Amino acid sequence: MEHFKEYLSFIQNFNFRVNEIRDKRIFSKKGSVYGRGYDIRHQNPYFSFQFSSHLRILKDLAVVDLIASDNQRRVEFLKQVDKVLERFNLFWENYHNSYPKVLKTFDNNFLLVIDFGKIFYANILEPNKVDIIVTWEFVEDLCDSVREREESLAVFVSEILLLDSPSNKAEGNPEGVSEHPPTKIKRYPVFVEGTADQLFIILKKYFPTDQQKKLNSLLKDNVLPKNKLLFNSNGNQLADAFKQLIEANLIVSFSKAELEGWIVDNFQYVSNSLVKPFTVGYLNSIVSSDVKVCKSPILKILKDSSELVPMTWSKKGKNP
């Protein structure tokens, strides 16, 4: 099980670097101010093929390790994976709850505030160490790295569960049924009458023109798109919209956990001009959180009539 151990270790190990950077938070008449800043671009899948490939290889080798184990041991290994997935949930929860009010401006203690060093291993992060600059670009790279690891772990779990599928057992695997059910009934959100129409009218401008019919079919007829639909704005805005709907009981017969999985399966979003996937941990920290995470919601629900009202935001982040 050496590969499995190495994979789980790599997933939780963040190799921070420190480089000389310009501190964009400080304006001086004498010119730009420079200092030591965190960097993890070398572990961002959008900038490092080496990182993505290494993660994929470790994942595949870990799967091979578990193929050779019996069913009961797989169950125990998956319990350990569940613990790691909970760490990702905690990261996203802390991240959203501590996101600065002034956009793209982070204090040097941000990693300490979100308890990053308690959730994951970071090679140079120490208690009370606040002399290294935390930039918006670094935080974006860090989120991309976290997201890639979480996605890899989700794929790993799905591949292991497939080993215990009924078809595999019929082909000669006589072992007992896994405690992690490999097959689930495909469920979808049920919108209260009129809600899907209102939601589509508000959401359609955030999606490419050629995807708007597919969005309409997904919301009104539960027709799943072949490829994920691209939400052309911040991911927390789309997540918040669905959160408002389910908490107002305008989405029924569907749990928040199911809603999070449905969004993961059918949507992606744009951040920093890059297409990003939703992950369960990211969504869980928004949809299942009691804290209001989204500071720029795209809709609000009128309590008396349950009418959906679009929200528009100026460049200063205020609703005019």
From TrEMBL:
<protein>
    <submittedName>
        <fullName>Uncharacterized protein</fullName>
    </submittedName>
</protein>
